[in-house]
From TrEMBL:
<dbReference type="InterPro" id="IPR005135">
    <property type="entry name" value="Endo/exonuclease/phosphatase"/>
</dbReference>
<dbReference type="InterPro" id="IPR036691">
    <property type="entry name" value="Endo/exonu/phosph_ase_sf"/>
</dbReference>
<dbReference type="Pfam" id="PF03372">
    <property type="entry name" value="Exo_endo_phos"/>
</dbReference>
<keyword id="KW-0378">Hydrolase</keyword>
<dbReference type="InterPro" id="IPR037493">
    <property type="entry name" value="ExoIII-like"/>
</dbReference>
<dbReference type="InterPro" id="IPR004808">
    <property type="entry name" value="AP_endonuc_1"/>
</dbReference>
<dbReference type="GO" id="GO:0008311">
    <property type="term" value="F:double-stranded DNA 3'-5' DNA exonuclease activity"/>
</dbReference>
<feature type="domain" description="Endonuclease/exonuclease/phosphatase">
    <location>
        <begin position="5"/>
        <end position="248"/>
    </location>
</feature>
<protein>
    <submittedName>
        <fullName>Exodeoxyribonuclease III</fullName>
        <ecNumber>3.1.11.2</ecNumber>
    </submittedName>
</protein>
<keyword id="KW-0460">Magnesium</keyword>
<comment type="similarity">
    <text>Belongs to the DNA repair enzymes AP/ExoA family.</text>
</comment>
<keyword id="KW-0479">Metal-binding</keyword>
């Protein structure tokens, strides 16, 4: 039963001890990483290989960056970057094939301060993702990562706290809803339809994290054929309490090799 996870590491080299500890304790089969914050040549591929994973990555110095890891094998890269804007130099999308699974790793723009140029870029990027995603619906596909969008009020501990933030703006939520309306299935919600589940918390000035700031904005959207095989889903919340953690926790799903039932 393949296990697929997504994790915004918030600096792959600075948080490498956290990443390696998590990989060792969980043994996920496919792992998508976002916000690498490192250039192509500084990606810690040797440490990741030593942990038992092959990798492809799309780096960018100091900002953004995405990677796809596969346990015991090398992902086969299919695409880097979304079509629709040849002038976009941000490293935010990477796609690979692992056995008969297509994996898209996404780091969607945050969009703050909003409104403004960064929010406009977020919406344009999101629209490119929605358009391109149509071509992947017929395959066994998971599009996972940090979408920087909180889809509904249940996805925030205190929704009113985020009304002025781009991740909660109606335009962001509408773009996510449009993508789901195409046939993509929010895997976490398929397993936990009414539960408050969170993948991000702000850093606390006293160390640790502010539990009242919880948001769910790291998502695993799966194609219809893959949605029928989802067995379980969750968040590795404990990583948020480790030493020098990311502000995100990994989200994951279990899928069956074949359609069950």
């Amino acid at each position: 039963m393949p296990r697929i996870a997504t994790f915004n590491v918030n600096g792959v080299n600075g948080r490498l001890p956290v990443l390696l500890k998590w990989l060792a304790e969980t043994s996920y089969d496919v792992v998508c990483l976002q916000e690498l914050k490192t250039s192509e040549d500084k990606f810690p591929v040797e440490a990741i290989r030593a942990a038992g994973y092959g990798a492809v990555w799309h780096g960018q110095k100091s900002y953004n960056g995405v990677a796809i890891l596969a346990r015991g094998r090398d992902p086969v890269e299919r695409r880097r970057g979304l079509p629709g804007d040849p002038d976009d130099t941000h490293s935010r999308y990477l796609e690979a094939e692992i056995d008969n699974l297509v994996v898209g790793c996404i780091y969607l723009p945050n969009g703050n301060p909003a409104p403004g140029p960064k929010f406009d870029y977020k919406l344009r990027w999101f629209e490119r993702l929605v358009t391109y995603s149509k071509s992947l619906l017929g395959e066994r596909t998971v599009l996972c990562g940090d979408y920087n969008v909180v889809p509904t009020e249940i996805d925030a501990v205190v929704p009113a706290r985020w009304l002025g933030d781009a991740v909660f703006f109606p335009e962001s939520r509408n773009a996510y809803a449009r993508m789901v309306s195409l046939g993509w299935v929010d895997a976490m919600r398929r397993i936990h339809p009414g539960k408050g589940i969170y993948t991000y918390w702000t850093f606390s000035y006293r160390g640790g994290y502010d539990r009242s700031s919880g948001l769910r904005m790291d998502h695993l959207l799966v194609s219809p054929s893959l949605a029928k095989t989802i067995q379980a889903a969750g968040v590795d919340i404990e990583t948020r309490g480790w030493e020098k953690p990311s502000d995100h926790a990994p989200a994951w799903i279990d899928v069956a090799d074949k359609l069950v039932g």
